[in-house]
Amino acid sequence: MSEKSGIVFVGSKMPMDYVLAIITGLSASNAKEITLKARGQAITTAVDAAEITRNRFLKDLKVSKIAIGTEEMPPREGETRSRMVSTIEIKLTRE
Questions:
Q1: Which of 39, 32, 26 is nearest to 67 (CA)?
Q2: What sign for the dihedral angle of Cα 62, 64, 66, 67?
Q3: What is the pTM of this model?
Q4: What's the alpha-carbon Rg for the chain, to the nearest Å?
Q5: C-alpha–C-alpha distance, residues 39 and 68, integer Å
Q6: Residue 58 to residue 34: CA distance in whole angstroms
């Protein structure tokens, strides 16, 4: 988690690891909002982490903004074309 900006980058870990990062980020810095960023297959993990946090742990947490997009990734070794990868940003705000 990026402490200064309140951003959690979601990758291949289990959703509960990111739930802990969200709760820690909101309580440690007394921040009012935190943003989850994910791309590709990690999008499902980001959505799961946001929903688990909201429904089980922090009932006053609301989804204030969801932004979706696409990034162009450079070609992998042996490939000739670049590829497009979906992205999502979920902003969670504490009331």
A1: 39
A2: negative
A3: 0.90
A4: 15
A5: 9
A6: 13
Ranges of each domain in the chain: 7-94
The answer to whether the Cα torsion of 91, 52, 9, 38 is positive or negative is negative
Here the tokens at position 91 are 């902003």
How far is residue 88's CA from residue 8's CA, in Å, rounded to a whole number? 12
Distance CA 39, CA 17 (A): 17
Q: For every residue of the chain, which 3-state class applies, written as one string? A: CECCCCEEECCCCCHHHHHHHHHHHHHHCCCCEEEEEEECCHHHHHHHHHHHHHHHHCCCEEEEEEEEEEEEECCCCCCCCCEEEEEEEEEEEEC
Domain 7-94 indexed as CATH 3.40.50.2300:
no
C-alpha dihedral, 59 to 91 to 18 to 3, nearest 10°: -110
Each residue's pLDDT tens digit, 49-82: 999 999 999 999 999 999 999 999 999 999 999 9
- What residue type is assigned to position 90 of the chain? I
